[in-house]
Amino acid sequence: MRDQRLADFRRNFSWILIPVVLLAIGAFRPWHGLWSRIDHLGGDALLALHAQHRLPPQDVVLIDIDQASLDHPQMLELAGNWPWPRLVHGELVSYLAQQQARAVLFDVMFSEPDVFRTESDAAFASAIKNSPIPVYLPFVVAADGAASRLADLPPVMGIAPGANAAPDARLPLLAPKALPPELWRTGMINFNEDDDQRGRRLELFREYQGWRLPHMVGRTAHELGMVVPDQPSIPLHWYAKPFLHIPYHTLYLKSLSSDTGVDARLAGKIIIVGSTAPGLGDFHPTPMDARTPGPEIMATALANLKHQDWLRPVSNIWSILLATLMVFGTALGYQRGRHPSLILAIAVAITVMAVVAAYLLLDRNLQWLPFSALALGWLAQIGHGAAAYLRERRRRKETTDLFGRFLDPNVVRQLTDLNASAEARVGRTQQITILFSDIRGFTTLSETHRAEEIVELLNRYFDLQVEAIFDHGGTLDKFIGDAIMAFWGAPVEMPDHAVAAVEAALVMSDRLEAFRKELAFPFEIGIGIHTGEAVVGFIGAKKRLDYTAIGDTVNLGSRIEGKTAGISRILVSESTREACGERFEFIYHGEFAVKGRSQPVKLYEPRRQTS
């Protein structure tokens, strides 16, 4: 009983241990990077799929400094090679103002004055100064370089001190120094990537020593009257199709023509001027592409802010609940003995539902990342599945070890499927048919032959007879010297166990005849068979157990075998004859007194049906 309680404790402990270990791994801070990567990978795939149904709005238009514009013959004649004189950008600004654009954002750096064409920089500055629409210029927070004191920067940059701003805070900035400071209506254009080198969020502002540095997108959106959340960044809600792109050279050359009509593509739109030419290198890895152009990222952020459809993260509590459900649910399923295929099907269903829910939430601009929770759940599935496999393997080995000495291997495989080892250990009373077979005159035989010959003879004989027992589904109980004890009806239930026992006895008799022809001396056996109730199970000490049958039925079977001498090679009791029905012919040999019985026993000789 104590061993059973210990085994139960170990089994139940494993169901708790695996979930606790997995949830601890999930909460272990050094592993957060791994779980974040899993969430990001799954989230990126869902975003890319969902984006296929999202069309970019027409509020934002991109003017591309593309390869076609760089190589266009007229642009080469008028502006030369890149970088173009800034007068070109000034003329474009003036044209966009005539087209009644809402605002112009340059995603092009103007950090150094053009010392060879100062009049060109002046013309660009004049165009911005006289523009009736706002023109935003970029600055970059550099990784190194000469640091600027933030308090000394012109207020028009929008870099504002907070209540606890450090008066001497400094940062290396690449500002639009090609233009006068009073025109520095700027915004940061840094685009940060996550740990996996992929960008998913856009900064609206950055806090540094109490100072707030605005992003050009956040500042533009705020000054154009959009609702901008007071949070450092927003997860971007992407579009599969690109925004309206107009090659730079197309608009610039049109601005030099006499056409004064308003282009409906530009009127009332936010214009982003940026480079998409491969050689200019303004590309970033995002969930949509490994080389997403910078202007496309800015356009996505502006469109998200204007239409209030940037992504709002769903609380992590839902992922925690999902992980807990899957991990402990899997443990409970295995602990209660549910079939692994059912547990697997439930895990698949939960996974599908979670992924579908995450996808549908994107329609509401909500981003749920359940993928690390699902990964933990599937780790639980693998862990419990492996543990269940090892337990099953151990159980099968235990059953094989228990019954392998007594049964045909095919019967042992049936027992492992039926999980009969535990039941066999307890033992129970059941209806069986017992068979005893003994060699007659064995003592004389052993006195006239060498021991080696006797052992070889017995082994050959036992091989033949045990094979006959196994072929008919019998259980080999034991060898008692030169005798064999076997029974039918346990541990595998067999409705016609009496028939099987008699069939086996007849085959044993046939095989004896063939065996005797090989010998140079007489060799005879007796077989006694009886059907009745017996206690069957593992009996013995802990270190030496035998699967055996005990009771009056066993004793009577042995007594019947003792009566075969001089009467018949095989004798069966009346209960066995009745259990066999009409399957055999039986010759009645009369009533016999047996030890331990007050009433005589009727004995019959079985023979196969002749017709």
UniProtKB/TrEMBL annotation:
It holds the Pfam family CHASE2. Keywords: Lyase, Membrane, Transmembrane, Transmembrane helix. Its EC number is 4.6.1.1. GO terms for biological process: cAMP biosynthetic process; intracellular signal transduction. InterPro entries: A/G_cyclase, Adenylyl/Guanylyl_Cyclase_3/4, CHASE2, Nucleotide_cyclase. GO terms for molecular function: adenylate cyclase activity. The chain crosses the membrane at residues 12-31, 317-334, 341-362, 368-390. Residues 433-561 form the Guanylate cyclase domain. CDD domains: CHD. SUPFAM superfamilies: Nucleotide cyclase. SMART domains: CHASE2, CYCc. Signal peptide: none annotated. This is Adenylate cyclase. It comes from Novimethylophilus kurashikiensis.
